[in-house]
Amino acid sequence: MPRKSKLEKRPDEEHTHLAIRVERCDASVETRVEPGIYQPQYAWDLDDDSPLYRTTTQLTFAGVTTYPEGRAGEAYELTIYGSTSDLRRNEATVKDVQARDERGSLQFRSYRGRQIPIYNPPLGMGLVDKVRGEPRWTGWLHVSPLFTSNAVALVNSGRLLFLGIHERRSKRTRWIQGVSLQTTDPAEE
């Protein structure tokens, strides 16, 4: 009796670099007093240095995937939020993700005779989800206000735009590791 072949196990992580031709961009900007000032029960992440006025820019890019070939032709919608209330997140440093022991001391490991830091990297900048039953994807991420203002300048240039997205699949979740908005097709780079 012939043996049954084992199913190939999918890797725990998979990295994909997407190229998306932008067909439409919607933009909005909003400013308001920090809501936690009026509702302190929701102000659990505010500190004394948090901005009093929150300004948020939202850009939504819609387009079609051109690369990789297996996902070419699928619709994609990516929403990018740039907010002054996320300054702690946007101004995080590498030291902020360095691993610490139970006493709060920075952790290191030995590598080729040198002490190098151990890091607990963030899972990603945002998430990507497949719309069930459709060849369509949606995603979102938070970025610095500088990124959104530079993106608006590119949108207003009148040139054909492309999104480059570095996507990391970990188990069943797809994380955005990086994004670029550019006037050249990332698939040709």
What would you say this structure looks like, in words?
This protein is mainly beta. The protein has helices at residues 87-90, 145-155; strands spanning 13-33, 53-67, 75-83, 108-111, 114-117, 126-130, 136-143, 162-170, 173-182. The strands form two sheets. A seven-stranded mixed beta barrel has the order 1-2-3-7-6-9-8. The chain has a two-stranded antiparallel ribbon with strand order 4-5. β4 (108-111) and β5 (114-117) form a beta hairpin. The protein is globular and about 50 Å long. The mean pLDDT is 90.
User: Given the C-alpha coordinates, what overall shape results?
Assistant: globular
Number of strands: 9
How many helices?
Answer: 2
Counted up, domains total 1
> Largest sheet at a glance?
7 strands, mixed, barrel
Order of helices and strands: EEEHEEEEHEE
- Compute the CA-based radius of gyration: 21 Å
Strand content: 35-45%
The strand line-up of the biggest sheet is 1-2-3-7-6-9-8
Alpha carbon gap, first and last residue: 51 Å
The level of helicity is under 10%
Q: Which stretches are low in confidence, meaning pLDDT under 50 for 5 or more residues running?
A: none
Structural class: mainly beta
Calculate the mean pLDDT score and round it: 90
